[in-house]
Amino acid sequence: MIIKDKYGPEYLIEVFDPKIGMEGYLVIDNTVLGPGKGGIRMTPNVSLEEVYRLARTMTWKNSMAGIPFGGAKAGIKWPGGSDDMKKQFVQSFARAIKPFLIKKYIAGPDVNTGEREMSWFVETAGDLHAATGKPSKLCHPSGKKCGLPHELGSTGFGVAKAAAIAIEMSGMDIKKTTVAIEGFGNVGEFALRHMAKMGAKIIAVTDANGGVYDKNGLDATELLTLKEKRIPPIEHKNGAKIKPEELFSLPVDVLITAAVTDSIHAGNKDKIKAKIIVEGSNIPMRENIEKKLFEKGILIVPDFVANAGGVISSYAEYKGYDHKKMFKLVEEKIKKSVTSVLKQSLVEKRWPREVSMEIATRKVEER
Q1: Whole-prediction pTM value?
Q2: Which residues contact 143 (CB under 8 A, 6 or more apart)?
């Protein structure tokens, strides 16, 4: 259901290319703080409602992160196919939404899109400023503003930092903390990489095919090697094989979501045993479900607070920063926002999303 209120959405756009069957959506939710910023996802069942929900999340995410972007999101129905067909879909979509680019919307990577797709997109748009997350070799003619690709892992890095703060504020020792990660794409991979580096025990990882679980801890290096070879985590040599859904019922300290929308739902919410949920994915559950889990005593770091690393990286690229300065900016902003939200939540015993929404909406309303 699309809700129209004082914040937006400003534009609800549906496009279709009858020559190739490309069907896509662009929702520009709110541009009070700046041009709408949000990635393009390519999935078989993406809908206007899903894109709207994601765009609204981006409004609060950008506000919460303190960067001069508004909220927007795009989606292309992608049934799968050759790289050539995928390029045609991306470029057809770029042509269709070109009138809105830069002033109202700046694209970026999302599910099934990365630096390659952003390169195709800006090529068709005819302006490097039309998207962030571009290849590092793609630079402005001045040579000073180059791409900061999604593949650097800024979102997963920020999610790991958010998790570490939540663990510390819960009075737990990260080196004695068990972690389960749902999703092993870009966000899941880098969340695992940085959590393992900080000493957390990764006990389960899944993707759409299933995964692996070992209460004594999995070998993070081997998992990352499998990822490099494009081998699913279920092929990890140690631990028990599990179905994707089984991850949610595991006895674990921290659950990191890094997969698709609404993966936590009415059918599995009561099975969750985690003490902390860090939402690395956008809208991993509906708000009523999230609130019920919080009321059960689970500390939840909301998506637009936890996974803002990607859009902070987008801002760094927009400003022409290098990757070192970008990661420093991500860490500073994630630390500031997560700490402020959780501190107030724990002191006042209030739902973290409610607290963070107050902060984010205040920034929008004061402009």
Answers
A1: 0.88
A2: none
Q: How far apart are CA 194 and CA 214, in angstroms?
A: 19
Q: Is 287 helix (H, G, I), strand (E, B) or coil?
A: helix
Active-site hit among 73, 134, 161, 275: 73
Number of domains in the chain: 2
Q: How far, in Å, CA of 205 to CA of 95, rounded?
A: 39
Domain region containing 271:
154-309+336-361
Over residues 219-246, the pLDDT tens digits come to 999 999 999 999 999 999 889 999 999 9
Q: Helices 48-65 and 323-348 sit at what angle, rounded to 10 degrees?
A: 90
> How many percent of the chain have pLDDT more than 90?
91
Q: 73 an active-site residue?
A: yes
Instruction: Tally the C-alpha atoms within 13 A of residue 315's C-alpha that lie toward its C-beta.
Output: 24
For the chain, the straight-line distance linking the first and the last C-alpha, in angstroms and rounded, comes to: 27
Query: Is residue 302 a part of any domain in this protein?
Result: yes
Give burial (CB, 10 Å; 0-12/13-18/19+) of 144.
Answer: exposed
Quick one: 212 and 267 in the same domain? yes
Do 260 and 127 share a structural domain? no
Asked if residue 15 and residue 141 are part of one domain, the reply reads yes
- Whether 305 contacts 341, CB under 8 Å: yes
What digits encode the pLDDT tens for the residues 129-147? 999 999 989 887 776 788 8
**366 in any annotated domain:** no
Q: How many CA atoms lie within 13 Å of 350's alpha carbon, on the beta-carbon side? A: 15
